[in-house]
Amino acid sequence: MAERKKSAARGQSIKPAPELAITTDFHTNEDWRFEKPVWDKEKCIKCGVCYLFCPDGAIHLDDEGYYEADLTYCKGCGICSVQCWTKSISMEEAVKRLPWLIKI
Ligand code: SF4
Ligand code: SF4
Predict the structure, then answer these.
(1) 20 to 30 A Cα–Cα from 58, which one of 10, 38, 74, 101?
(2) CB of 88 closer than 6 A to ligand 1?
(3) The CATH number of domain 26-94 is 3.30.70.20
(4) Domain extents for the chain?
């Protein structure tokens, strides 16, 4: 056991991580997100619950005081849609590229 630790400390038993082309091919969340939130302003009462629950801080106010997602940072998790109690946010398909279509 002591010998194993010693080897690991010298880096002998740790293989370097392979370079994955997939990580350099995605530049924003928009490149891989499968769904995006779409707001219905007719139903929205501007309560801000969606803003509070977005784990990525991707939701902000627009000029009219409604909330919307910055699709550069939105990862399409759908939490805002689930939390919106007036059902103002629906998730729409937004596949741009599929990971398995990327050349490695
Ligand atoms: S949670 Fe729903 S009703 Fe409240 S601001 Fe967001 S979209 Fe509008
Ligand atoms: S889908 Fe997820 S990441 Fe995108 S705005 Fe809604 S809560 Fe934020």
Answers:
(1) 101
(2) yes
(3) yes
(4) 26-94
